[in-house]
Amino acid sequence: MKTVGAAKLIIVTTLCVGLAACGGGGRGGNDDDAAFTPDMRPDARQTTIWEVFGNRTNPNTTVAVNKYLWNASLEVLNFLPIQSVDPFTGVIVTGYGTPPGGGRSYRATVKISDPAMDARSLKLSLQGPGGAAVAPGTVRAVEDAILTRARQLRVRDGRL
């Protein structure tokens, strides 16, 4: 019975000593801070195991929005006043406006969620005054107009 307790004590002590030895990073009594500041330049910085699993793209510099869908959305909904746009997240929010030849006002929120030119990349939400629901056929017609215009822009650029 005593040998089991002694074996556990030896294992725990060995693990504690091993962990203490891994601590390293101390300054060893040297007060020169410049000698111990990490070099964060991208070419000098070492990679870690965690960077393998992380997202390497910087969301502040990467635009993951299809430019044809983006421009087509702005062109098709040009009768609506723009409240906010964020090309990094792909969101366009408009105020209320009446379409040409229409009698009812709408507001729109567009989300372009993927750089691929695909109907699944486009999410459109229309609201009537006071948050009233808009007929699904109207939403589908506006989505189709945006997708058609995006295809036209792509063909005009010659990127088929």
From TrEMBL:
Alphabetized, the UniProt keywords read:
Signal
InterPro entries, per the entry: DUF3576
Q: Which residues form the signal peptide?
A: 1-20
Carries keyword Signal?
yes
Q: State the superkingdom.
A: Bacteria
Organism of this sequence: Paracoccus alkanivorans
Q: What is this protein's record name?
A: DUF3576 domain-containing protein
